[in-house]
Amino acid sequence: MLSDPVTHVKDALLDAGAEDTVTVFPHKVPTAAAAAATLGCDVAAITNSLVFELDGAPLLILASGAARVDTRLVATLLGTGRIRRATPEFVLRHTGQQVGGVAPVGHPEKIRTLLDITLEQHKTLWAGAGDHNSMFSITYEELRRITGAVPLRVR
Questions:
Q1: Beta carbons of 69 and 78 less than 8 angstroms apart
Q2: What phi, psi does 7 have (nearest 5°)?
Q3: Can you tell me whether residue 95 is helix, strand or coil?
Q4: For residues 67 and 125, which has the higher predicted lDDT (pLDDT)?
Q5: Phi, psi (5° rounding) for residue 87?
Q6: In this structure, is the dihedral angle defined by the CA atoms of residues 81, 93, 61 and 144, taken in order, positive or negative?
């Protein structure tokens, strides 16, 4: 039986015309390193869904698991104020998902989203699917399309 957040992700994928490629693992994969080890792929092909707070609103940055987001750079490129890491409570309220399992889709409301341009180097990306045990595969272009993300250098 799937958790509600994973069901929301599957529904969002199908509603967007994407394939349902959600895989549920028997163990947790809450980090990019754990996911890459489980999947046998490069950690750089793992898409971390990182929620930040910008002027009281959520900002979702889909970043390579091999990188750390440079929030100063992102704020400069966007021409905004300071971008802060969101609290777990803020993340749950805006995504309906727990930190460590946040997906790029399946949220109660659309979230402004940025997509790390370095992810385009990978034929297949893997992203969290709403909980700590689930992930889905997708191409860079399909991920950009279904999330409406703006491609940006984030590091």
A1: no
A2: -60, -40
A3: helix
A4: 125
A5: -75, 160
A6: negative
pLDDT of 30 reads: 87
102 C-beta neighbours (distance < 10 Å), count: 27
Positive or negative, the CA dihedral 68, 69, 70, 73 is positive
State the average pLDDT over residues 108-122: 98
CB distance 51 to 86 below 8 Å: yes
Cα 127 to Cα 31, 106, 136, distances in angstroms? 11, 12, 5
Q: What are phi and psi of 95, to 5 degrees?
A: -110, -25
Q: In this structure, are strands 112-116 and 23-24 parallel, antiparallel, or unpaired?
A: unpaired
Please calculate the CA angle 38-42-44 and round it to the nearest 5 degrees.
Answer: 120
Residue-level pLDDT at 1: 79
User: Do 25 and 135 meet the contact criterion of CB atoms below 8 Å apart?
Assistant: yes
> Which DSSP symbol is given to 88?
H
6-10, 28-32, 93-97: segment of lowest average pLDDT: 28-32
pLDDT attached to residue 2: 87
- H helices of the chain, in order, are 4-15, 32-39, 71-78, 88-95, 140-147
Instruction: Return the percent helix, strand and coil in the chain, to nearest 5.
Output: 35, 25, 40
